[in-house]
Protein 1
Amino acid sequence: MKFDQEGNVTTFEKKKTELCQELSLQARDLRFQHSTSLTARNNCIIIRMESLKAIVTPEHLSVLDFRGLGLERWLVLDLAPQLASHTHSLPFEFRALEAILQHKVNTLQARLNDVEPSILDTLESLVDPKILSADRSKLHILLQNSKSLSELETDVKVFKDSLLKILDEDEIIEELCLTKWTDPRVFEESSLGIDHAEEMELLLENYYMQAEELGNKARELRGLIDDSESVIFINLDSHRNVMMRLNLQLTMGSFSLTLFGLIGVAFGMNLTSSFEEDPRVFWLVTGFMFLGSGMIWRRLLSFLGRHLEPSIPSLPSLPNITFLNDKTHVICNTRSVTNCHSSCL
Amino acid sequence: MKFDQEGNVTTFEKKKTELCQELSLQARDLRFQHSTSLTARNNCIIIRMESLKAIVTPEHLSVLDFRGLGLERWLVLDLAPQLASHTHSLPFEFRALEAILQHKVNTLQARLNDVEPSILDTLESLVDPKILSADRSKLHILLQNSKSLSELETDVKVFKDSLLKILDEDEIIEELCLTKWTDPRVFEESSLGIDHAEEMELLLENYYMQAEELGNKARELRGLIDDSESVIFINLDSHRNVMMRLNLQLTMGSFSLTLFGLIGVAFGMNLTSSFEEDPRVFWLVTGFMFLGSGMIWRRLLSFLGRHLEPSIPSLPSLPNITFLNDKTHVICNTRSVTNCHSSCL
Amino acid sequence: MKFDQEGNVTTFEKKKTELCQELSLQARDLRFQHSTSLTARNNCIIIRMESLKAIVTPEHLSVLDFRGLGLERWLVLDLAPQLASHTHSLPFEFRALEAILQHKVNTLQARLNDVEPSILDTLESLVDPKILSADRSKLHILLQNSKSLSELETDVKVFKDSLLKILDEDEIIEELCLTKWTDPRVFEESSLGIDHAEEMELLLENYYMQAEELGNKARELRGLIDDSESVIFINLDSHRNVMMRLNLQLTMGSFSLTLFGLIGVAFGMNLTSSFEEDPRVFWLVTGFMFLGSGMIWRRLLSFLGRHLEPSIPSLPSLPNITFLNDKTHVICNTRSVTNCHSSCL
Amino acid sequence: MKFDQEGNVTTFEKKKTELCQELSLQARDLRFQHSTSLTARNNCIIIRMESLKAIVTPEHLSVLDFRGLGLERWLVLDLAPQLASHTHSLPFEFRALEAILQHKVNTLQARLNDVEPSILDTLESLVDPKILSADRSKLHILLQNSKSLSELETDVKVFKDSLLKILDEDEIIEELCLTKWTDPRVFEESSLGIDHAEEMELLLENYYMQAEELGNKARELRGLIDDSESVIFINLDSHRNVMMRLNLQLTMGSFSLTLFGLIGVAFGMNLTSSFEEDPRVFWLVTGFMFLGSGMIWRRLLSFLGRHLEPSIPSLPSLPNITFLNDKTHVICNTRSVTNCHSSCL
Amino acid sequence: MKFDQEGNVTTFEKKKTELCQELSLQARDLRFQHSTSLTARNNCIIIRMESLKAIVTPEHLSVLDFRGLGLERWLVLDLAPQLASHTHSLPFEFRALEAILQHKVNTLQARLNDVEPSILDTLESLVDPKILSADRSKLHILLQNSKSLSELETDVKVFKDSLLKILDEDEIIEELCLTKWTDPRVFEESSLGIDHAEEMELLLENYYMQAEELGNKARELRGLIDDSESVIFINLDSHRNVMMRLNLQLTMGSFSLTLFGLIGVAFGMNLTSSFEEDPRVFWLVTGFMFLGSGMIWRRLLSFLGRHLEPSIPSLPSLPNITFLNDKTHVICNTRSVTNCHSSCL
């Protein structure tokens, strides 16, 4: 345990019971059951802010169980000078309370500052419309940060609630002005024209509003995460639709090729077709296969175009089909196929 | 720093400490820790609205640190005349407060006006059912605007809260009526039949309601964004389903062609099938390949149609199949295939 | 401008300033800055309900700027008789206030009645499980209605808030009972056993509850839209899954056919395979191609069936394939294929 | 209309005006404008609970317009005995009020009991992970139930609000204790040690808490629906991903077969390749086609496996490719293809 | 039933009516209608916490209907010593109340501890980016836990509300201090410097805050579930997009192969093409088929790459196409095909 008098730092160890006797507190008051609490008891202010447990009396501030919590640095370097400075003409407990609340708000702010750029960066890279699939490691980071953010939100809320509970009851604020009750002489001296209770209210209100600002920022950040998730979904869906259309166009092409390739397969059969000897038929059939595939594909593509933009009154660009005589029966066939196709969709 | 007396503008520079002494304020009161605050101290009203910091006394209005913030134009052109005009018979601090609050509401309104058409335009074009994939640059704009909107919502909320805090406590309203306390003569003169505190309450309430309207508009806009996102998702999904059905129909066609193409491949093998010399067999098999593919495809398409609309009792349009004699065994085959196919799905 | 005395209608034009002087109001009171307001000033009730601006005095009701707003019909046909009727024994201002509030609630109700069937119809047709893709024009209608609905919700909320603000402060209710203050004789006469302020409170409360019911209905409608959107998404996703399974089954078929078609292609090569002269080999290979395809397809389908229902411990029903020598096996094969097809779906 | 005296049931018809005169109520009081209301007027309690309209006096309970609403059964069988029983030593109006509120809560509870198992069943079957596509009829049922649930939530909320409004104002509770005001003798007799107003408060509070429990259950149910919808979506998406992977694997197979089938097609051309006479070449090329397809497929599958599980450091199982000399140029080709493939992904 | 005096445990059975007479309670007070209630009646505190029903008097604590509820163990082992210990100098009812509330909070905490690791584990494994499809059994567990969590949230809320109702009314707190009213001697003795009501308030507040912490944890957990669901969806969508791109790339390959395979099919026809005798043509056409396929595929892949990353200004890596003379017409054809392809997308 440690003991801080107005500027001087003393460290010593004491049993809880001795401490209780010294300050005439009950053992129960030092149990620190809640993670965040701020109560006035018997001319002491007992504070717990997560890992920081402190007792403020009009003359000194005791910090309990401070080891191994990363607080030493702050205690030694920042707290002592802050307590020693006499910028306010206000008594000691105001300075102590301000230092502790400031430390709490700074901690919360630091946690938000930790989380915020990480979230913004991750979202920035996830929302990037160029990427096809979300980077999973980024998603993991986002999930971690989102969890930290909701823990931070809870802590800010708990901190705000504990301040609000005090602000709502004027008697508690009065009780917090220790000097007023213990040291009337100092009180009268220091309170020339200053109402201690009002000053205390202002001090607490100040930190309440700082916490509120933190809460607002956290809520905005959460809103941004939600919006970004929607945008990520729309992005992924859009990519998928584009790929699906490409896929569909290629499937159309493959279908056309397969359809007309069937002609080639037919002529490839070891069956007599009576055209075997005519040298021109080879080029005719080959040309027909390629041209027919291309044409059917074009029809299907334009059909797809019309289908996906149904509201534009579009003249279907009917290809001028002029065929040689000896293939008309096949044409009729394919035409009926596509007709039935379009009729049954 | 700048100094505005009832209509006349004076600019000069002063240290903060001098200012404090002059107005007998404490240094702490001029720290402007919160982005939006409105407090009465020692017959001064100290206001901060984001970048605008001002001190109102019964005789003059001082604007602090106004340079480089885009406020000069407003200060010179609008503020001076507004303060000089004597439309109300109310004292100076009312006019000053009204001018500053009006400026704040105007700023918020301007931000909403900035964001609103951009959001509406972006949504309009994103919701367009004709487009297959969402334009990513539009999504980016939407995300930016959505972020601006939530910042605006926070600012409106903070502004409303700071006004509400004053409206809830009658003493603060009383304190804001500076003339009442400093200049009883002017007070009595001006307050013929007018209760200053009530007028102040009306003034603040007026701006509170304007902020509330802004908040309502922003919330509606957010609701519209959410609804539009749902519609965008339904649109994209619908497109995908349509494309998938087309794809499925083509896959069915390809399957049919491949199935019957196998016959052609079989006859194309360099193996003796004893049909090689019959010239009619070529046409028979070719015709069977094309007809069979078409038929199977048609059956599959009608099957798909029934499958996707299961509740409509539809007579399956059985195709009139009239075949040549020597292929009946194959026909039976395919018929049983498709029958069992349709029965088992 | 228009002037309504107890039943008689008079229309005339007046400047705002004259009106102010006549009623000894301040110019500011007639600015009607907020879309919905209800205030008592100097024995007048000044009301604005969106487009309707009115001033109620104990003797008459003046409606301002009524032209071109679609209000004429209501003013002439409904308002005059309503004001003239003496069903209550209550003074004039009660009747006037009731008429205006009733008109407001009717307007809101009419807007809800406008929007509600349209939304229900659109949802009904969008939720229809038979449709494969959402009708985009319906989605557009839904979006429009959803926007109208949220505007309506805001208006109901604003109306409720302005009534609630009055109901919360008894002095304002007292002020609204104009006759009590201006005409003590009429007051005493009319108030035999009736407390004016209480009647006023009942009247306002009545409309507050009507507005609350409207708000409840609107919220239910919004909930219905959200639920329906979820159902639409599930529907579209289900359709997609069904189509994807069909697609996968056909892809399996195509794969099998391609795999065994490769045998045919191999034998189609202009390479000597030493089987060229054996007539039975043609039928053997052809049969093997079709049988093999069918079998592989069957295996794949049953694999798919097992894969999609992983929790059912299923013995893979290995088909006992025993074949005849010639062509009957093709029939059996395809038949068994389709059987297995039906069993595994 | 009907008339119930302490246990005896009398039915008769009366005009509204007669009823008003009899009970010295105003016509307005019997308009029953709101779906749920509970007011005390002139020593009567006027109650409307949806379809049930009743007037309670210290001596009797009148139920109005009870025909055709499914209430007869309850009125005759349950209400009369309940009113007649003297378990409480409390006056009649307590019993009447308790009977009516109990009936209301029972109705709400019955509606919840109706909806709850249906929702749970539907969700149970929709969440079933084995099903591939959501059953649309189930979705329809879910939508209907969800609508009923939100109506029920609104009714519970309205009921709670109307009770809460009474509980918040002690005067209304006093007014509801009719006997206290009308029958001081009975009052004094019955109130030995019992405070009527307190009893009334307890009675109302009791039903308020029952309504609250109903509201909690309804909210839990809504939460369950939301969670289940998420699970349904994840299920459908998972199924789709599994099918898509299968599809992709088969597409890989088809691609491999097509690639190496091209070799067969090439050798099938009626062009001289100088290999025509070598009998071993047939087996070499055929074997190469099948082996090559299989190998490429394997490579693609392992590539897919690596691609989908990128974080596992996996040694790519390089197939031992040992090729014959005269095909190396094709190998190089396919190798470069797959290289470029993997590089461009 | 059971009877616990200050440390000693007595079990006996009693009728409810006898109990009522003994404690001079009304039968109604022992109905325990609500799942959670805490009321003071006639110098008894009647408590129900779900399955635990207890009556506290200044001298003893009776637990009712305790059998078969899993409470025996707690009653015998923990409750008796807790009641017997005299750590507080506070009267018996404080110890009894503290024991029961502590038991309730412990039960809630135990339920949260049950649910929390299960949810975290399930989410951990579901969010894992490596898995392609969500494990459905895990989803089922998640759904169950989510249901337990919302039931827990409701219970915590009900518990908090019942404590808050007492904390809000000072008279109820006074009533809860039984000793103050029944045993003034003990009261005076024990209350040296201690205000009983204040102690009671502190005691209740302590448990209220513990319940609040539980509620906060549950809410964080729910938020985590929601966030994780979003991440799961993005993961599944990403996987799908990756697979779809692979599929598209393979479809492109298949298309290219089919396109150029058509040349092979054409040459495979039993038609005279005049090239039959030239041995070089075989290699030329075969090479052209493979090279052409590869090239077209490469073009399509680079087209896809450009399409999916539209914002990068990329020089399309035009492949140096140098063809032999006699195939240019086919090239033109395919080029026009791909041109039209790119133009119509």
Protein 2
Amino acid sequence: MTERKEFRDLAEPDAAREAIASLDLVPEPESVPLEEARGRVLAERVDAAIDVPGFDRASMDGYAVRARDTFGADEADPVELDLVGAVHAGATPEVTVEPGTCAEVSTGAVMPDGADAVVMVERTDERPADGSGTGGNDGGDDGGDDRPARIAFRTSVAPGDHVMAAGADIAAGARALGPGTRLTPREIGLLSALGVDEVPVRGRPTVGIVSTGDELVRPGDDLDPSRGEIYDVNSTTIAAGVTEAGGEPVLYPHAGDDYAEMERLLREAADECDLVLSSGSTSASAVDVIYRVIEERGELLLHGVAVKPGKPMLIGRLDRADGGESAYVGLPGYPVSALTIFRTFVAPAVREAAGLPEPRTATVEGRMAVRERYGEGRLRLMPVGLLDLGDGGTTGGGAADGAAADGPAGDRDLPLVYPVDKGSGATTSLVEADGVVAVDPDTEYLEAGEPVTVQLFSPDVRPPTLLGVGEDDPAVNRLLDRLENPRYLPVGSREGLRRLRDGVPDVAVVAGPTDRDVDSVVLGEWSREWGLVVPDGNPEGVEGVADLVDRDLRFVNRPTETGLRRSLDDDIGDLATERGGSRADLTDRIDGYGLTLRAFESPVRRVLAGDADAGLGLRETAERLGCGFVPLGEQRVVVRAATDRADREAVASLAAELDDDGTERLLAGLAGYSA
Amino acid sequence: MTERKEFRDLAEPDAAREAIASLDLVPEPESVPLEEARGRVLAERVDAAIDVPGFDRASMDGYAVRARDTFGADEADPVELDLVGAVHAGATPEVTVEPGTCAEVSTGAVMPDGADAVVMVERTDERPADGSGTGGNDGGDDGGDDRPARIAFRTSVAPGDHVMAAGADIAAGARALGPGTRLTPREIGLLSALGVDEVPVRGRPTVGIVSTGDELVRPGDDLDPSRGEIYDVNSTTIAAGVTEAGGEPVLYPHAGDDYAEMERLLREAADECDLVLSSGSTSASAVDVIYRVIEERGELLLHGVAVKPGKPMLIGRLDRADGGESAYVGLPGYPVSALTIFRTFVAPAVREAAGLPEPRTATVEGRMAVRERYGEGRLRLMPVGLLDLGDGGTTGGGAADGAAADGPAGDRDLPLVYPVDKGSGATTSLVEADGVVAVDPDTEYLEAGEPVTVQLFSPDVRPPTLLGVGEDDPAVNRLLDRLENPRYLPVGSREGLRRLRDGVPDVAVVAGPTDRDVDSVVLGEWSREWGLVVPDGNPEGVEGVADLVDRDLRFVNRPTETGLRRSLDDDIGDLATERGGSRADLTDRIDGYGLTLRAFESPVRRVLAGDADAGLGLRETAERLGCGFVPLGEQRVVVRAATDRADREAVASLAAELDDDGTERLLAGLAGYSA
């Protein structure tokens, strides 16, 4: 088993790139209707098959003449020619311009035979047939029956004047568009001018996505959490990434724990696709099936890469029934890891196969907001969040926000970059991080302020313009809905204040009493009623924290970082003082005191589900979800901005939402809330 | 007729923007399947409806325990617990962990009742039922029937250790994504985790495109140039632009010159669309129909804007049969003008209605390559070409080309910007210009080197990395196919040399003798045979230029800028010397000497069509298109690079294609070509 050894020696990231580059994902070119060609890439050069225009075309309203007939004409001494007819755009000329004659033409008309130039109408006069009177020609209606018999020309023209010769725009046989051209509206326009309605384009690589893992359920299907089922995140995420990179994703049905079926699906996907992806399964048996299929009918190029995350990456080829082969890449299982590895190693190969360049917005320059230690001896693709301090015009490596930009921006305007580490398993990291920073194995730390390049999770990712942290609160959620592209991390009041002090966020929302004193500006505040949420009608007759201590009630708590918990602990402290004991004596006697749930609604939902007799929460949530509520007090919720950020446009917008009227609107209908 | 006055007074561009902003294009929100949601914009906040994970989840392979049972355990003094069963991912636990017991769990498994923590397998030992022997647990197979009866724990754990509580990733009720969020793969991932398979998104504004103009034919339909028909460029170009801006284009059929039908179509489009666009017709009557429809059933907001191009822009509202109204904008008729006005005034409104921000790549900073005079008293949207000197990583306002970037780039790396003015009517301007520079009415000139902001025709436009100019030549066309994103303007040898001297292009291709001496580096050269192209079999027995002078033959020439023409004129000059007269004496006697066609194939095609007896051309073209050929000589074709550009990566790539082997491949099969 020589290959087993290979699995242990992690490959360098460059070797992984080379292995993927060695795979052939390029599909056959295809032909698409013009109206579907936008965004595609020309497979071959397109030469003009016709002249544009296809005829000598009048480019002014006026009279078609033989230029020689006008020679010598000027204002003082006009030349008169017989008017023999008219030609309009979209009509076949029914006249010939013989020497001494002219024909009326409108812009776009076919030049009549004999004529080789146009005199614009403004330089001519109409002469009636009888020779009496003259009338300036000013582009008015041609007057039907009143058409004059002769036209006086007050200027001479040269052959070709005001005529666009056939092929002058594009000549038949000319090179119109080169192979590899990305088709944007203007290329669609040129192809239209040439009459092309079927366009030869590069094919989109077909990427099969095989989902492994017994516990995965497709979004929209019923989920049975009691069986440990979770929704399949990777298949849809990677499918969207494939589309974004110019590929065509094909989702294969779940094989569940039927390994024969999984093997069948892998082979089917290889037969049908240019590339097959699977994402890591928690099941060792599933990985074994993939190995077996590759080893029996394919070639394993590489297993294990010295990159974090992504160590278990697997690269190989799968034979096809028709004798060809498909590429295979196995992605890690955690969503952020899978997307990171896809973005870093696979998407470039898909784009390359589709003939598309890397989008200019795929990376963003930023600067580290904090010092970050590192030292793991392998390449780290560190998930990071971004905060765009430039107030709007973000960040393709500098300032590109239109006419107002006056040259490239300095480092000061670079967005802030901060590490996001919630554990790779967290799905929320997907939206709390904006991309990754590649940290070399030999980098010991990144300094605060150090410039870094962020590989965005998508070229369409827009870094938020406001970063808030702090208490989880329904009024805050409403407030966020009124802002443009904010990010809010509900880390609790305590942790929020700590982060505000450390200088990353713009704003912290703090509820209840605090010990910390952080230099900040108050943007707004309100008050909320908190207490114990109980089943509707309060069947246990809960009256306060004493009941939690003294009776056999199942309680659900909130984490110590939250303002709600701080207020509860103060209450229990008061009770302990009253009883002459320590707070810990009392909390030890509360069943579920240590069971803390992350979001403000969670304890209420446990009560609703019958899994708890009381939960720490807000009157608002209790009433909205139809529970009983035992009030224990009110607490202030204060929105604080970092002093040095108070002038930012995004912070000012937030402050504007928190004026008296704004706060009133914000709290309208929220039970237990007051300004 | 007070409104007539309004038509004469051109509105300021800002007034046009305000008029368009006052139109309501916002469609109703809709619901789309998750797999189609990428790129769309959330219409409303999405809160989590479920806990993720939906159960307390083991986050390690190991044993589920009651944490209290492990208190005090360490390497020296392990605690032993009875093993009562196992739980795997995707399965419902069938065991309960009572005090003194444990259950095997794999990562992702549901925590069994009773257990509140997991001890990782590495910190445990298996103990057989009889108590004899010990075996380290190292994560191997669970061993089926050999499952031990007791497990020794060499560490203690706290409640919650290695357990992800239900809702710890996202809690039911938590704010997941805010309204206005652009859905990229990562948001698709988060929605998947929440089980959302139908996503509430902003609607795409429906934009009806009504084509006016008798002469317009849809690409793919038959064209009759003798009637002055041309392909409709604007409808497809603008439709692609609408899609790009996040709208849904609807093309209405051509009404031809049936004004009743045109009126019916306008009203149908208003009934069905959020916005109706038409593009200028050469027909005054068509414009009259549009006026009448708007005045009878709608409101005219503005007609005529002080902007070049785009003066005839028309903005209004159209009443709908159902009592609502649709917006209407009339665009100018020339393709570049229509796209310019669409991009500047209409696309922003479509994006706004779709909830999309302006793409970061919609503009590019550059610097003027040449001095440009201006002074027309109205805003000019000047079409410009770009040349990316940065060799690849272009230009979102600076350097953003990934890991190699070391801070914002200086002015020197800004792409060169040069005006493109082929007359607004030229379709080729669509692809020879990359965007427009807005020049204020009071700007007298733009200096060479002056920084300017270019509004690209599309966010997907990539400025070329190589700009070539000069002779039109089939070998050059082949050469271009081998380069990445080049632009070549076939302006002729003379004009090409002039432009090379003026410092804009990288490269000029020069054929035949030249007078100019331009500082440059020769990258490659070859020779081509030129002469007179005649009908197959040379029915007139043409032998040389003397026949053109002396006989009654219809000739087709090439422009004076071309090398072919220069060689022909030299030949005629020699004949004149021989005969003792002037060249002009001879050329006056050539029928068609003044008829010059732009592309190298054009004279040949005239001959083929029977419209000429001889044309100036190449043996290559004559043989390829099946004509006869009367050789007059050979001329050198030389590829010259500007000296200060010779080191550029793109120029080096070109030079590499022109080494001996490259030139041989280039010329293979081209009749009359030699190295």
Protein 3
Amino acid sequence: MATTKGAATSARLVESMLELIQRNGYAGTGLNTVTEHAGAPKGSLYFHFPEGKEALGEKAVELAAARFGSLVGDSVLEGAAPGQVVRGVLDVLAGILTDSDFQLGCPVSVVTLEMGAQSERLRFACANAFESWIAPVTDLLVARGRPESTARARATAVVSMVEGAVIVSRAQRSTEPLRFAADALALLLDQEAAS
Amino acid sequence: MATTKGAATSARLVESMLELIQRNGYAGTGLNTVTEHAGAPKGSLYFHFPEGKEALGEKAVELAAARFGSLVGDSVLEGAAPGQVVRGVLDVLAGILTDSDFQLGCPVSVVTLEMGAQSERLRFACANAFESWIAPVTDLLVARGRPESTARARATAVVSMVEGAVIVSRAQRSTEPLRFAADALALLLDQEAAS
């Protein structure tokens, strides 16, 4: 029971860290704010994360990787054409941006940009997160008959476009860049599939 | 003479703020660090930027917008095909990443992600920066015969892909994502130009 409760507190702390990073970045997220946001008792953060902020940030990046990865995975399972899959993912992201009044960005991007020069541990977690999104898109393109090497190159470009479109959309407070990204990627991926 | 010296100090402070934001983000950049990095006298920051960090950050974003804008403008002036122009820009960015041992990211992306929810002034500066890069690419595509509306949509997708590719490259400590972005954009833009 205690362990269950402890696990629940730990999960809430990671959830809060993730949401606060999406909103304000990593450096701008204080651990007291995380504890309050999670409604967790003071001291519980260092009990569950004795290594502190870097360890909690790593868990938040891993959670973001798993969440977005399952979104990509679910979209792929529908067996749609690559362009449709990408459009479906971008539609979900557009919903997240509008529902949050354009206050939430990608936690992996912001942690990469803030901490890439300071924490090899966080940089590595971010590289793994990107890889966990590139891999299923690569598999999708290979399943559609693309050679592995070009499939991986295109999948990396897809993830890059999606990451950038979220940022431009947030800056412009408009989902238009996400739609433009979907149109461009659908054209790129489905044209090639057809060729 | 005093004003010239003052202008030089002010410019050094903006330069240092820009470089430190590229390296560690906005929240992670302290004003004392900026003053030291600029080799400026203590107190000079509040003398030149009485409004403080937000005003200095705005100037840094504007400087980044002008720098990258002139890089895009110079590439466009060469009159190359859109795909070649984009490849040229991405080659320069790859050089910046490798020369900095992958320590420098895009200051506009990181300020958008960290401060978009907190500072309308900085969010607006970032939106203007993206617009200042989207506009010349739109003009380039229009000059190549694309209708204004689709040219703007593609130009926005190009800027999104470039922003995202810089982030994925930094996370992976590899310029491969930048090359993959150049390949994908060249295919997208030049295929369309040909069609």
